[in-house]
Amino acid sequence: MLAIAIALLAATAEKDLQFLKDLAETRSWRLGRPTSVRVTPDGSRVLFLRTPPRSPESRLYSFDVATGQLRELIKPEEVLKGGEEQLTPEERSRRERMRVTLRGFTSFDLSDDGSLVLVSLSGRAYAVPAAGGASREVVGPDDKGNAIFDPRLSPDGKSVSFVRAGELWVAPVAGGRARQLTSGATPLRTHAQAEFIAQEELSRFNGYWWSPDSRFLVFEEADLSEVERLDFTDPAHPERPGGETPYPRPGHRNARISFAIVPAQGGRAVPIDHDRKQWEYVSHVDWPKGGPLHLVVLDREQKNEALLAVDPRTGKTRELIREHDDAWINAEHDLRWLRDGSGFFWASERNGAWQLQFHQPDGALVRELTSPDFGFAKLLHVDERKREVVVQRRAEPVDEQIFAIAMEGGQVRALTDGPDNHDAIYARDASAHVLITSPSGATSRVQVVRADGSIAGELPAVSEPLPFDVRLEVAKRADFWTALIRPHDFDARRKYPVLLKVYGGPHVNSVHRSAPGYIAEQWIADHGFIVAQADGRGTPGRGRAWERAIAMKFAEVPLEDQVSALRAMAAQEPAMDLSRVGVMGHSFGGFMAALSVMRRPDVFRAGVAGAPVVDWMNYDTCYTERYLGIPPPSGHSDAYAVNGLLAFARDLQRPLLLMHGTADDNVHFAESLLLLDAVFRAGRSENVDFLPFAGQTHLFHEPVLMQRYWQRVFDFLEVNLISAR
Predict the structure, then answer these.
(1) 79 closest CA partner among 122, 116, 118, 49
(2) What element of type H or E holds 480?
(3) Which of 262, 259, 261, 125 is nearest to 180 (CA)?
(4) DSSP assignment, residue 604?
(5) CB of 438 within 8 A of CB of 444?
(6) Residue 98's pLDDT is what?
(7) What confidence score (pLDDT) does residue 2 get?
(8) How many CA atoms lie within 13 A of 704 on its CB side?
(9) Averaged in consecutive runs of 10 residues, what is the pLDDT profile of the chain (725 residues)?
(10) What is d(CA 4, CA 125) in angstroms, rounded to the nearest whole number?
(11) What is the DSSP secondary-structure string of 547-594?
(12) Which of 103, 454, 467, 631 could link 251 by a cystine bridge, Cβ 3.0 to 4.6 Å?
């Protein structure tokens, strides 16, 4: 019997190791699915990226809507010719800001007529016909070896713009001499690149833009000379260059950003005259066909926002819309101009929830197309011929459906319904669209739909099948959306330890109906746990008051709501053993996990904190000041000490597994060192296990590392929640 038991344990261990290996190599079975889907303006083709099932190398494909034929347009190995992919420092930084961890073609650009595609790899740009055909290099490094960054096609497809050696350039796609449009860049004065704050906190990753007629470009200049410089050298690699990096901490100076308009043929740049003292942030820039060149700007406190139209001849600006919020403005943009210039669409929260509005060209409100209780989430398409818009509605954060709304108001019709969630990408003329359907128990289906409603085909996924199904239950409990994952062999007569997976911070919903997204949680559950998640106040999709409840209360409201949701779940599921609750999270979730075991040891028995923010004074200005106010020397907020972790280090009584990448340039490695020091000084260091990840950034996906990560996490949970009684 003993031999049989040992054999069974060995088989189980081998099965677990294989699962963790598969989990890491397939990126939780997400590799191999179509991403970055775009429909050509005439609806004739759908372009998308896709990796192999066990390789993070992204590749470019084209789907012919008429024939259903699929072809790979250009292969990374054709470009690399046996070499290794090389990233410029600018590209590596931008991918980190965008949370892109893939290799190969991670993005592509499309000419305005949809006939030409531009991709880049290892500092070189290649043009390829969207219909298929030979690719050719259109621009690459200069004779000094300076690689290109952020190449883009002009709208007419005749020119390619790019950044090289810190300056903005333009070259003919057909071949010929490149023209340098800017000059004077230094390490502390950048041209045509979005500054750190725009990328990290405002989702603006571009630093230059074409005019719709391809005659001009707008570019950003960022002056970093007054930004505090910190040394983020990776201690695991002292041989690598590090040095001082400009990083804007709360209360300190931001980059001074300005914009100018320059002819594509070269010449004098016209500066854009926006009040930089009043409007410290620029969250959105565009120059659309039919609409003016415009900026969306925010003040330092992020309580005021304005849409500014720009006269390209003089650089003068005029205000079209002003928004105000006593807590903060969410800088999200569903701004779309009609191509005939007769008006534009704008999303606003001023009435307590997101609404879609239509405005005259001068900014005057014409009508509100959705009510505050409609659940407007996203503008998907403007059909000028049918005089209607297509929007995504999120009546609840876990339910996403598509509706068509008449531009003149009144008529609203559902294009999809539940229980599946839906999203869509449209051709400009609506002659085709891609419908993304996310069933609760299966991976997403990506269908290509013609204008008459017929299905042209499906963008094929090559991802491997999930190894097992997920026992997911999503329900609203005590006004919180919650998710429970039970073991496959669940026995209602037993008591199970509980793992609370947490994020808890703004702009993120953790709870969703897509069961495949919980595959790692199901594996944990199958080892004798119930895994739980909850979205409390501060998360999006529940209206302005729900989201703004966390203002000045990072260490209070989110934790209070997680505890309340946990108890509400246990009230409906008696098998949850609330005497054995662990908590696990990363980034803001890491902050929450550490906070939970420090402040509520009566609830949480153990915590796993990945890359936690420890002292919010060390995070960036834009994110932190939005929620906690501006501290000295620039402001007067005193909310920082009571909302960080250092003040509670003396209260750590429960085991905490702390993990952090040594090269993390988002939540810096020094944060975990500060926490370790505070815990040690408080005489609580016996309660902390520290695991540094050498050379890793905020997100890491190296297969061996991920496999060992999950092993270590599970061992910690097993010791502190199952073995210990």
Answers:
(1) 122
(2) strand 480-485
(3) 262
(4) -
(5) yes
(6) 75
(7) 43
(8) 1
(9) 46 84 94 96 96 95 95 87 78 79 90 93 92 91 91 96 96 93 96 96 96 98 96 84 86 97 96 95 96 98 98 97 97 91 96 96 97 96 94 94 92 92 94 94 92 94 96 96 98 97 95 93 97 97 95 96 98 97 97 98 98 97 97 93 95 97 93 97 96 92 91 94 76
(10) 60
(11) HHTTTT-TTTHHHHHHHHHHHHHHHH-TTEEEEEEEEEEETHHHHHHH
(12) 631
Number of CB atoms found within 10 A of residue 524's CB: 23
Q: Which helix (H) or strand (E) holds 68?
A: none
Cα–Cα dist 337/359, whole Å: 9
Report the Cα–Cα distance between both ends of the chain, in Å, rounded. 27
| The residue type at 87 | L
State which amino acid sits at residue 538.
Answer: G
Going by C-alpha positions, the residue among 357, 290, 289 that lies closest to residue 323 is: 357
The amino acid occupying position 419 is P
- Residue given tokens 């990776």 in the structure block: 234
What residues contact 94, with CB distance under 8 A and at least 6 apart? 150, 194, 199, 205
Q: b/e map of 173-212 (b: 16 or more CB within 10 Å)? A: beeeebbebbeebeeeebbbbbbbbbbbbbbbbbbbbbbb
How far is 725 from 714, CA to CA, in rounded Å? 17
One-letter amino acid identity for 442?
Answer: A
Tell me the DSSP string of 393-405: EEEETTEEEEEEE
Alpha-carbon Rg of the chain, whole angstroms?
26
| Cα–Cα distance for residue pair 214/670, rounded to 1 Å | 46
Single-letter residue type at 387 = R
Instruction: Write out the two tokens for 119.
Output: 């991709």
CA 589 – CA 49 distance, rounded (Å): 30
Other Cβ atoms less than 10 A from the Cβ of 587: the count is 20
Structure tokens at 314: 């003089």
On the question of a cis peptide bond just before residue 633, with omega within 30 degrees of 0, the verdict is yes
Q: In the chain, how long is the greatest CA-to-CA distance?
A: 88
Q: What are the structure tokens assigned to 293, written together?
A: 């060149």
Residue 530 φ/ψ region, left for φ over 0, alpha for ψ in the -120 to 50 degree band, beta for the rest:
beta
The answer to whether 378 and 392 are in contact (CB under 8 A) is yes
Q: What angle do CA 401, 403, 409 make, to 5 degrees?
A: 145
> How far apart are alpha carbons 292 and 335 in whole angstroms?
12
Are 566 and 501 within 8 A, CB to CB? no
d(CA 395, CA 374) in angstroms, rounded, equals: 6
Q: What pLDDT does 410 receive?
A: 75
3-class state of residue 248 by DSSP = coil
Q: How far is CA 169 from CA 135, 329, 352, 441, in A?
A: 21, 35, 44, 49
pTM over 0.85: yes
| DSSP line for 581-597 | EEEEEETHHHHHHHHHH
Q: Can you tell me which residue has the tokens 């796993």?
A: 608
Write out the two tokens for 160.
């390619």
176 three-state secondary structure: coil
* Token digits of residue 78: 């054709």
DSSP E strands: which ranges in 287-411? Answer: 293-298, 304-310, 317-324, 336-337, 344-348, 355-359, 365-368, 376-383, 388-396, 399-406
Nearest in space to 179 (alpha carbons), one of 263, 260, 88, 122 = 263
